[in-house]
Amino acid sequence: MRKGTDATFTARFKRDFVLNKYLYLMMVPVLAYYVTFHYAPMYGAIIAFKEYAPMKGILGSDWVGLDNFKAFFGSYYFWRILKNTVLISLYSLCFEFPAPIILAILINELTNKRFQRFVQTVTYMPYFISLVVICGMIKDFTNSGGVINTLFTYFGANDTAMLQKPELFRSIYILSEIWQKIGWESIIYLAALMSIDQEQYEAARIDGASRWKQIWHITLPGILPTISIMFILRVGNLLNVGWEKIILLYNPSTYDTADVISSFVYRKGLLEFGWSYSSAVGLFNSVINLLLLIAANRLSRKMSENSLW
Amino acid sequence: MKNSYSDKVFVGIIHAVLLALVIITLYPMIYVTFASISDAAQLITYKGFLYKPLGFSVEAYKSVFHNPAILKGYRNTLFILVFGVTTNLIVTALGAYVLSRRNVMWNKVFIFMVVLTMFFSGGLIPLYLVVKQVGLIDSLWATILPFTVNTFNLIIMRTAFMTVPESLEESAKIDGANHFTILFRIIIPLSMPVIAVMILYYAVEKWNGWFYASIFIKERELYPLQLTLREILIANNTDAMSSGANAADQFQIGETIKYATIMVASVPILVLYPFVQKYFVKGVMIGAVKG
């Protein structure tokens, strides 16, 4: 409360309520949604510290402290799913993250506008195909006798169902991610490229800089802020490999390399009904994600001026 | 001179790389198209790339369109699409409007509350328990209500609403307009591009969504299209589709049915997409400003 406004909190609230009663009314459904489907589950996450029994409900179930966490950290699965999650994330950071940046730069170099638009239209397209269909195609193409499989047999590979091979899972996962998202994710970099001052290129050309040098000295620095923001987000999501694609592609014979934290939570919780145990795993994941994001943001703010908040 | 020569090579390489990317992107879709109209008996023994359909047959499409599971899937998905996107739009617009107001008492609290959900969540299991608690299990609304507002979309919409000049609202207020009038008569008509973007984003999300339906909906009658697809494509279960034929035919036709279902489920979006592409791109741009 600033000086001069001697109104108390309740008085201010009352006045605001009368003045903006429709605003409050508008906020009702929005708040109801966030409270029910975001904050209630956050509260529900306390079952991670309980032994949840559906009959007793969330409140009535018995507290078990950190038992669920201990069981998870001590289990054989802990290292396996942590390793898989981190590896898939790191591979994606190394290969999937730079791909759209390179694509955007290449598209930007095109002088033929029609070809440029054509490349954009085509490469954005797979983003809109449903994941079920994408995974169905992956499964079909990498199956024995499938297109990709046959292609590899030309180079001497054996014709086997590739999705049954644990050692191939990550490559299939990452490559198909790139295939589906490279175009769409390049949009944000293309937007950044458009805001680069064209006079810089003009000046560089007069100085006799080659196209390659122009990319290196003007284009890349020009989109560096965008790259760093995207990088922070990516690092913040390092332990956040979504379950949807994993559970469509994996099977028991590839769990060794394919099972990640989120798919583990899904399987233990919803298929095997280990509510509390799997909530503990999920909560561990959420907390680590949040910490990673904060750390990445802080690091980026220190090293450059770019940060999320 | 040396530079311009190397530049030409450079440009040539760029064209080659992009052309290769275009082919890699398009070929799987072309393959599926060819395979879906191929003769089942020929396709099953064929290995490798298809450059044209093998024979010609629309048997697969016939069985897809006569299949009750696919038709029900379409109907359920349509329900989710219509009611889902409507709910999404209304509630997102209300939230975006409230959050775009300046000098409103609870604004900072609301924004914090909304943004926090982007960075932290209770997790899958607690969400499931909540949905169960409110009695949405085995209801199509289970794929709608728990996803009423996509926070990212909310922020995009708020950003767009904030660009509407304040003077317009001020004059409306003087004329006695309340917040509903301002939102529906001034802000929304002036923000049609962003509304279009939102409709498209939400519609794609609804059309393609399968995961939450798979955990919240056990009743087969209520399966949306993508869940039926999952059974056919991932679990490789085409038996139900080709019932009536004998075992050998069933196996053969199952192969083409897979491709025909992919087409049936993807073509609506891919046909529509080139016309609405610019709106999608616009959405990314608006989102990028705020980040």
From TrEMBL, chain A:
Keyword Nucleotide-binding: no
All copies of domain ABC transmembrane type-1, residue ranges: 82-296
Cellular compartment(s): Cell membrane
Membrane topology annotation: Multi-pass membrane protein
InterPro entries xref list: MetI-like, MetI-like_sf, UgpAE/MalFG_permease
Top-level taxon in the UniProt lineage: Bacteria
Cited PROSITE patterns: ABC_TM1
Keywords (A to Z) from UniProt: Cell membrane, Membrane, Transmembrane, Transmembrane helix, Transport
CDD domains per the UniProt record, alphabetical: TM_PBP2 (cd06261)
Spans traversing the lipid bilayer: 21-40, 86-107, 215-233, 275-296
Similarity comment: Belongs to the binding-protein-dependent transport system permease family.
PANTHER family reported for this sequence: BLL4140 PROTEIN
Name of the protein described by the UniProt record: ABC transporter permease
